[in-house]
Amino acid sequence: MKRKWRLLLNFRNWRFHDSTWLILSFTVQTKKFVDCFGPLNFITGLWKASLADHNFRQLTKMIDTATEAENTKTFRCRKNSPSVEEAGSGGNSSGGSALKKGPWTSAEDAILVDYVSKHGEGNWNAVQKHSGLSRCGKSCRLRWANHLRPDLKKGAFTPEEESCIIQLHAKMGNKWACMAAELPGRTDNEIKNYWNTRIKRLQRAGLPIYPPETSVQAMKECQKSQDMGSCREGEKNRHDASQKNCFDIPHEFKTLELNQGLLSCPHALLDLPASSILQKGVNSSHSFGFMFQAMHPQKRLRDLETPFCNCVGITTDSFPSFDPYEDDTYGKLGRTFWLSSPYDADLNVNNPSIVDVLLGSHALINGNSSSSEPIVAMKSELPSLQYSASHGGSWPIPPSPLPSLESFDTSIQTPLRDQKQSDCPSPRSSGLLEAIVYESQSLKILKNKSCPQISETSPMAGYTVESLPQSIAKWEACGDPISPFSQSAASVFGETLISRSSSDEPLSAEAMPGYKIKPEAVDWISLESDEKKDISSLQLECMRPDVLLDSFWFGQCIWHNKDQFITAMDMGQLLGDDTNRCN
DNA sequence: AACGTCACCAACCGCGTATAG
DNA sequence: TCTATACGCGGTTGGTGACGT
């Protein structure tokens, strides 16, 4: 039995090395194990089979006692890799040399609650020292703030809260903490998670992030403050405010301020800031709410037919009204999809100026972008297929390969509008390129037109109710698989964002955190010679049925790192033996 | 039943800021 | 003024269960 513990010990130490981490990349469901070892992943089935609960603690105790010296040595070795150290810390080491990570146990919660009730909040690093919790102060604070605080409100957000969050986000942007302050009992993390989830949902559905009412309201507030002179007080002040007063106006709205002319043109609010998409990425919660979410292919069109009618009913005097919070995702597409796709080519053909206006984007003028926005990510999300595909069609061809976004401001100013478009404007590309093209057009327009002019020349007022649906119908009738509807920018973005990491870049250890392919020979070398013998001798037993069964579970290990096969088998052997013993 | 996908959530990490020495 | 430390915030990751295929 002693030998087995030693083998397990070796295994435990091994896990502290990056190269062996994968060995333990299994799911743990045995709570006791988690409680004792922390988030150390293990093989549930094997563990359950091999160790009864009653001797579980005994096992861990033995391991800790017997390996104290080795652990000390190991920790010293791991000192250069804090993350690994923390990740590997079982949480039961004494002296605070290792901090536990991962899910909190009820026991830890109790300790923390007890500590805070006695000492109050704050001084979180002292918690570890005085309470014996093997958690860093950061973790303690987070746990308390997000879960243990007595004033926390549990459960799903109420519709009122959701409404509030949307409005707050329209005003504040990603100031989660500030938003949480406005929502008693809710945490910034909660709100953030909610928002991110919601954003994903809306983007998948191709719906605007903000309901129009919220957007308009935020803009009104902005304009109001502008009228009061506060806006004009300077961007500097506003920037300061964004840092301090928690009532920052998202720069999308700031941009609107910059385009004062547009503010006087309500329908200009219908702008699609495709550039904001491009600048920020679709995951950006700062992405402007008015953004036309590109429609998904035909199947969505039917759902949207009615809303399109609603959409075209928009006049310069009114916005379509609806209850933006009727459901959580504006799931009733028909109700909420109040703006048409900007990639409706027929729109462009038949009513080019409509597109001009629809796409005329204040965001284009917005050279600023939140520091928190994933610009870089967005840059890399540009699907290369878009450009190459565009060559084959009559869609406006960019004068150069799809520019990087560093130069995007320049590229979108390219007067592509002057380029002749064919009568059959089916783009041979998906939405992103159109977005770029359209944005370039609209930028030029915005640069050349003042807002009143836009207002006067706006086709919105003269836009017929039939036009949009008809345009869509044409696309549907054409059945053009590569029509703008067949692959929208949004879908491209979304899909690309989701899949990119696995498809766009060659896999490498660096690109795959946690997947350190190269084994560390030191693990094996560092074993005592008698331990090697143990392992070697155990290999001879590998043909035993129970061992084979166990080894099956280590398939991942074998696959990822065949050099560590022995260790995996060793572990399987160990557990197999334990099974025998316990049974 | 197995598998894949997605939504949700908890927790971690890095960075910036505030504060004390 | 500089440095170290504590804290807070926002972005991101990883686990898990539900659901669909």
Automatic annotation (TrEMBL):
Domain HTH myb-type intervals: 96-148, 149-203
InterPro entries named among the record's database cross-references: Homeodomain-like_sf (IPR009057), Myb_dom (IPR017930), SANT/Myb (IPR001005)
Region (Disordered): 74-101
Major place of residence: nucleus
Domain Myb-like: 96-148, 149-199
UniProt KW keywords: Activator, DNA-binding, Nucleus, Repeat, Transcription, Transcription regulation
One GO cellular component, as annotated: nucleus
Entry's localization field: Nucleus
An annotated GO BP: pollen sperm cell differentiation
PROSITE patterns: HTH_MYB (PS51294), MYB_LIKE (PS50090)
GO molecular function: DNA binding
UniProt protein name: Transcription factor GAMYB-like
